[in-house]
Specification:
The chain has 404 residues and is α+β, with helices and mostly antiparallel strands. The chain folds into 2 domains: 282 residues, Zn peptidases (Aminopeptidase, 3-Layer(aba) Sandwich), CATH 3.40.630; 113 residues, Alpha-Beta Plaits. It is 36% helix and 24% strand. It is built from 10 helices and 17 strands. An 8-stranded mixed sheet has the order 1-2-4-3-5-17-6-16, with helices on both faces. Strands 8, 10, 12, 13 and 14 form a 5-stranded antiparallel sheet that branches. The protein starts with a helix and ends with a helix.
């Protein structure tokens, strides 16, 4: 299947179905690890194509393998990943396909990703007899901070068959329609969460000398943590410490004996991540000792940085060059957002791309995770062609190497 432009034409023919699937998912959003209906629709579609489907992988994930007949056991396998979950946001868009679930919305494009995955499956099944290997289609739950990728990995998604490369994509509402961001190295950052619990000694607001004020202790720590990036991290590196919540006290005339902070840290370098955690702990310890408080600092989860391999990015760029005009292929300064596609890339190196889905003239330019988020659905066939094209190109490359 050398003619990727023919692939693009086939994807364009799917446009009505892709839009219908996407709008159906948008109307019925489901939060992470609750994607029962979404996963069911995807699984039913895969079965209708004659594929054997594994459901409930990583709780609500769906997996299927596309392959031709009589492939040898050692034929290469490539993984394509599509995330399915929505966000706890009330939609404000006045569109026919508006979310019908109060408080839940597809505000990040995962409805489009799932529809694209279904289109990719349909296309690859059509050409499966010419595939020189296997394509593992992974419909992933709980990308939005809940660790769905790792849950699927722990449930065996990278086994039987084991992929040697992985590819994924994200529709991006702040980039021009069909622009493709593809680059080697870091694209998105490590994301870690933290929780700091402070215990002081509460008391009457009129007698502060008899207390250890947890609110004051927490306030000093918040301010002191802001010096970590400015004074402990090499200025040539990039890092973020953001406190997102601070809870302390319940009554206006009572000094709180407990406080809790939560937030996130971001970087591209594991050594910088370790430094952030070390300095945060040292500062919390020093401030709490100074005030006579105690503390517990934990880092509940960390998603690795999203890093593309050199070879994966080169292959993805070659595919993109045959599907979109050259001026629409670009690179960006790595972003501090995160993505657990990194879990797959760390184990099966490949490439993760962004595909522009903005049309400001139509009003589709809101940022992700916003109640007015939407995207230009004309991007859907492009997504199908890029992902199917990446899988085919990778398998062809591996087959050529095995013949050398």
């Amino acid at each position: 299947m050398d003619d990727l432009k023919r692939l693009a034409a086939e994807a364009q023919d799917m446009a009505p179905a892709l839009v219908a699937w996407r709008r159906d998912f948008h109307m019925h959003p489901e939060l992470g690890f609750e994607e029962v209906r979404t996963a069911g629709v995807a699984a039913d579609h895969l079965r209708s194509l004659g594929l054997e489907v594994s459901a409930g992988v990583g709780k609500t994930g769906v997996v299927a393998v596309v392959e031709g007949d009589d492939l040898p056991p050692d034929a290469p396998t490539v993984l394509l990943r599509f995330d399915m979950d929505a966000l706890p946001i009330d939609e404000e868009n006045d569109v026919p396909y508006r979310s019908q679930t109060p408080g839940v919305m597809h505000a990040c494009g995962h409805d489009g990703h799932t529809a694209i995955g279904m289109g990719v499956a349909q296309m690859l099944v059509r050409h499966r007899h010419s595939l020189p290997g296997r394509v593992k289609l992974v419909f992933q739950p709980a990308e939005e901070g809940l660790g769905g990728a790792l849950a699927m990995i722990e449930d065996g998604v990278l086994e039987n068959p084991a992929p040697s490369a992985s590819f994924g994509m994200h529709l991006w509402s702040r980039l021009p329609l069909n622009q493709v961001i593809v680059q080697p190295g870091p694209l998105w950052a490590t994301a870690g969460s933290f929780r700091l619990a402070i215990r002081g000694r509460g008391g009457h607001g009129a007698a502060p000398h008899e207390t250890v004020d947890a609110t004051v202790v927490a306030s000093h720590i918040v301010v002191a943590w802001q010096s970590v990036v400015a004074r402990s991290v090499d200025p040539a590196q990039t890092a973020v410490i953001s406190v997102g919540t601070l809870y302390s006290g319940d009554v206006n005339n009572v000094i709180s004996g407990r406080a809790e902070l939560t937030g996130t840290i971001r970087t591209f370098d594991p050594e910088v991540e370790a430094l952030l955690k070390q300095r945060m702990a040292e500062i919390a310890d020093g401030v709490c000792r100074a005030f006579g408080a105690t503390y517990e600092l934990t880092f509940p989860f960390t998603f690795p940085a999203t890093i593309n391999s050199e070879e994966g990015a080169q292959l993805m760029r070659r595919v993109a060059q045959q599907l979109v005009p050259a001026e629409q292929i670009a690179a960006i300064t790595p972003m501090m957002v995160s993505e657990d596609m990194s879990e797959f890339l760390n184990r099966a190196p490949g490439c993760y791309i962004l595909v522009g889905a903005s049309d400001p003239q139509q009003g589709w330019h809101s940022p992700h995770h916003n109640p007015t988020f939407d995207f230009d659905e004309r991007v859907l066939p492009t997504g199908v062609a890029l992902m199917a094209g990446a899988a085919i190109a990778y398998l062809q490359q591996q087959a050529a190497r095995s013949e050398d």
